[in-house]
Design brief:
23% strand, two-stranded antiparallel sheet, alpha+beta, 10 strands, disordered N terminus, six-stranded antiparallel beta sheet, single chain, 5 helices, 2 domains, elongated
Length: 225
Amino acid sequence: MVWVKLFVLILIAFHVVLSERRCAQCVAGKYLSQRSLMQDSEVGQSMGWVEEWKVTDCARGVIRFIPCQSACINVRLFKIGAAENTLEGAMHDCADDMIHSSPDLPQDIDFKEFSENAEFSNRRRNFNITYSFTMANVDNKEMIQNEYSSFIMPSYKSEYTWNSIIIQLAFPVVVVALFGTLCCCAIYKECGMCRKSRKPYDPDTSDDLQGEDVEMAPVNRSELE
């Protein structure tokens, strides 16, 4: 009986391993800048927002790979009226508990555990938004990177951190201080050269005397007494 239970557990574990797939986790372009579009509660758009996205870039091959029970998801944002082959932003991740509700998708499907191959598209707020789901593994870094190399994408400017703010504030201060120090050194050096090159003054002619013409007059001690 024990062996039967053990065999059943092995079968279940084997089934879980087979049913689990690997999905890419990354963003590209300015997807992170469109959070208000993808989490717009006013129109019923509710989906997860992953902190790890900030350290990824699909187009540069900076991609994480995660296990996934349901389908792998790829969201792409195309701005309406933009140049051809221009991609505003994109996201790869696992569909597990990702999309809770969306006006862009059929309302009779639970997309938190969506496990089918499908693609949906909708226009909203001046964007064409495409959701692609696949049950295949999405774990080829080179293929993903090459795929995005064919698109024209804007670059994402990350949020300022305290470190970057301190560096940006300190840099001009250091430059000004260095410039002031160099100026002071130059002025001090110039003044020192002036003192060394100063010539004796002749009160009769109001001219500077040449160094070689200066003679010390003999002192008459009788005049001093």
